[in-house]
Amino acid sequence: YEGDLDTAIGYLLEHPTHLHLLDGEGDSVMHIAVRRGNLDMVRTLIAIGFDINCRSADNWTVLEEAQASAPPRVIKEVFEAVQIDERRRWHARRAWRRAWRRAWRTRPRR
Questions:
Q1: Which one is predicted more confidently, 1 or 22?
Q2: How far is 73 from 17, CA to CA, in rounded Å?
Q3: What is the structure's pLDDT at 105?
């Protein structure tokens, strides 16, 4: 990824399994985009389903990378994506618990 959004997105669309791969330095394409302050690339990666909780080889999340090196507008975008992901996961856990309780209450008794 050398900063050309169209080329990078074209490559990722042709090779979707490469979306979360780490480069030779141990960074994902999102970590690189965040570090470079490339807001368009960050937004595009979020839109195509990049796992915002992905960690680099140094065990840094995207949000930690943003807080350490990105401009405020990129930090805000990443933070909002993390919040949306947390809400989705929270609602999924609640739905699973409700289904489990319902199954427990309606189980056949001996």
A1: 22
A2: 28
A3: 80
| Per-residue pLDDT at 47 exceeds 60 | yes
* Residue 41 tokens, joined: 């690339």
Distance linking the first and last C-alpha atoms of the chain: 62
d(CA 34, CA 83): 17
> Which residues, in sequence order, are bridge partners of residue 61?
55
Confidence (pLDDT) at 1: 55
Percent helix / strand / coil, the chain, rounded to 5: 65, 0, 35
Distance CA 82, CA 84 (A): 5
Those residues whose C-beta lies under 8 Å from the C-beta of residue 81, and which sit 6 or more positions away, are 46, 52
Is the whole-model pTM more than 0.85? no
Q: What angle do CA 96, 100, 106 make, to 5 degrees?
A: 145
Residue matched to tokens 């140094």: 58
- In the block, which residue shows the tokens 């990824």? 1
Q: What is the pLDDT of residue 49?
A: 86
CA distance 37 to 41: 9
